Structure formats: C-alpha cells, structure tokens
Amino acid sequence: MRRVILTAMCFAAMTGANAHDWYENKVDPVTNFKCCGGRDCRPIPQSSVQSRADGGYLYLPDGFNIPRDRVQESPDDQYHICENNYVITHQPYLRCFFAPRLKVSLVLPTPR
Question: CA-to-CA distance for 98 and 2, rounded, in angstroms?
C-alpha cells in the first residue's frame, strides 16, 4: 500500500512540474519581464475573466485591466494568469496573462 501511495505522490509531483514548465520561458510582450518567478502562474476559471470590446480583458478578482497588447495565446484553451505581490504594499500586480485563441467560424455565407 505504501508503494502505491508513494508512486501516486511522485506521479502527481511530476505532473505538476511538467504542467508548469511552459510558463518558464514566457515573457510579457510589453514589459519583457519573465512571466514566472516560481509559483506565480496558474490556470484561472473562465468565470473570473471578462473580455472587453477593445480586445483586452478584465481579471475580476484583482480588477486588472489587461490591454490587448499584453494578452498572449494559451497553449491549452484555458485562461492563465501570472501575478505577484509588491513587497511593501502586498498589492497584486500582473506579470503575464494568457487567453484561449479565438475560434473563427469557417461557415461561409450561402450564395443567393
């Protein structure tokens, strides 16, 4: 039984590390700062994000207004955020934001 539990724990640790790997080499397209400094990045639920008419997004929990030029394409069709806290004020700040690629319909209008 111990072997099964140990194996499951090792597998979970490896899966978590691999899932986080894709953030490591990403940088914000505007600030050029690295997105991830350890545990700064994570997937977020679609319900916590609101798209704006200008192509940007609003991250509701922190009130981040994310301009379109800081939005990067997510590799897994989920939303992801990388954020950290300022040392003195402990206020959160945005490092990077990833959104699913927009799906464009290929349905062509029928000729009349």
Answer: 39
Does any domain span residue 5? no
Per the structure, the count of domains in the chain is 1
- The pLDDT score that the predictor gives to residue 60 is 96
User: Is 80 contained in some domain?
Assistant: yes
Note if the pTM is more than 0.90: no
DSSP line for 13-64: HHHHHHHHGGGTT-B-TTT--BS-SSS-EEEE-GGGEEE-TTS-EEETTTTE
Region of residue 77 (phi > 0: left; psi between -120 and 50: alpha; otherwise: beta): left
Point out which residues pair with 59 in neighbouring strands.
49, 64
With respect to residue 107, please indicate whether it lies within any of the assigned structural domains.
no
| 79-85 and 41-44 strand pairing | antiparallel
What per-residue confidence (pLDDT) applies to 78? 95
Token pair in block for residue 108: 């062509």
